Amino acid sequence: MEPSAPQLLIVDDEPSNRQLLILQVGRLGFEAVAVAGGQEALDELTEEHRYAAVLIDLQMPHMDGFETTVLLRQREAIEGRERIPVVAVTAHTLADVKPRLDGSGIDGLLTKPLRPQVLVWELEHFGVRAPRGYERPATPTLDAATLKRLERMGAGNHREQLTRLIEQFRSKAGEAAEQALQASRARDGASVARAARQLDRAGRSIGATRLSSLSADLEQLAAAGFARSLEAYAHSLVREVELVDSALQALDG
Fold first, then answer.
1. Do 108 and 87 form a contact (C-beta atoms < 8 A)?
2. Which class for 188: exposed (0-12), middle (13-18), buried (19 or more C-beta within 10 A)?
């Protein structure tokens, strides 16, 4: 008999948000239960019913995500329960909510709209692995339209322009990737986010859609402020920059 999938508790007062999160985590192989408020969440989080993690909205009527988590942590301490990971999913930035985060007991913070890879990364930090992982839609290193345009440049009278374009990408992307890696080692989320944003722009300029998507994922994870283990994700960007560079070298002959 196969083990049951990890179960997540989703807490959000907006029905559309609950349905979207159920769909997103379901695609990752999780099971999910969704409730509309803090008290319902506390009623659901019993000793008998264990969840792998809680995804909670911060701003809800009657009892918000901060209050709910504080009460949950108090109950865990009094009853000697194992601490359950609580990740806030909010439309607000870290700067907006930071004054109330300290001491709330919230473990992680992700911003809406939620990117599936970022959710996978954050849950993995707490030892909660997605049964199916996240399979990024298959995309080539360079998108087809850009590839054809670059090939025409290389075959025609614009080889010098192609060479300059490639050199500009190498310079900007290489520097940004190194900055992201160094900043991740220093756990400097703000600098990681800035470098990832630069890589996103560099990827878009050359038609490197996969690099652009990875960069956007890392930017969201770093900008959340609670994200950890950024170095492994920065390494994935460095590898992707190398793949793009190899593809461009083949065009430049």
1. yes
2. middle
CA dist 170 → 166, 225, 240, 252 (Å): 6, 29, 12, 13
**Among 24, 101, 86, CA closest to 53:** 86
Cβ(191)–Cβ(171) under 8 Å?
no
**What pLDDT, on a 0 to 100 scale, did the predictor assign at position 137?**
59
Q: According to the model, what pLDDT value does residue 138 have?
A: 61
Fold of the domain spanning 144-252 = Four Helix Bundle (Hemerythrin (Met), subunit A) (1.20.120)
- Total-model pTM: 0.70
CATH topology of domain 7-125: Rossmann fold (3.40.50)
Residue ranges covered by each domain of the chain: 7-125, 144-252
Interatomic CA distance for residues 40 and 72, integer angstroms: 12
Task: Please provide the distance, in angstroms rounded to a whole number, between the alpha carbons at the two ends of the chain.
Answer: 55
Sort strands 53-56 and 7-11 into parallel, antiparallel or unpaired. Answer: parallel
- State the amino acid at position 157 in one-letter form: N
Percent of the chain with pLDDT strictly greater than 70: 91
